[in-house]
């Protein structure tokens, strides 16, 4: 997370998945609780990101590393109304990460469409 909170540099690495990678995102939710998508980390032709962020979302490899920089342009409204994160609200996402209530999923099909890999985000200084 940049010192001014206006961007997040990320690196997502994964390998040896059972299924075919479809997508990866940051979700707003505490450990063991499902939450809405707020940032797409990567997409595939089979499962593209929403039009608002598709042009700035990298493609997912089947195995490897995806990295980039997240800004307000990457934040989509959470599909869960009670979470109250709207498009562009990077400050809310940063607060969720700092508070330990954001996680990353790598979705793969056919066996693990809900997320073959899931882990809470930990901030590294």
Report on the architecture of this protein.
The protein is mainly β and 125 residues long. The protein contains two helices and six strands, in the order βββαβαββ. It has helices at residues 51-54, 90-98, and strands at residues 8-14, 20-28, 37-42, 64-70, 102-109, 112-120. The strands form two sheets. The chain has a four-stranded antiparallel β-sheet with strand order 3-2-5-6. Strand 5 and strand 6 (112-120) form a beta hairpin. The relative contact order is 0.28.
Total of DSSP H or I helical runs spanning 4+ residues? 2
- Mean pLDDT across the residues is 90
Helix content: 10-25%
Measured by DSSP, the beta-strand proportion falls in 35-45%
User: Shape, please?
Assistant: globular
Low-confidence stretches: none
Q: List the secondary-structure elements in sequence, H or E.
A: EEEHEHEE
Largest sheet: 4 strands, antiparallel
Brief summary of the model shown:
10% of the residues lie in helices and 37% in strands.
Fold topology:
Blueprint: E1 8-14, E2 20-28, E3 37-42, H1 51-54, E4 64-70, H2 90-98, E5 102-109, E6 112-120
Antiparallel strand pairs: 1-4, 2-3, 2-5, 5-6
What are the defining features of this structure?
37% strand; 125 residues; four-stranded antiparallel beta sheet; mainly beta
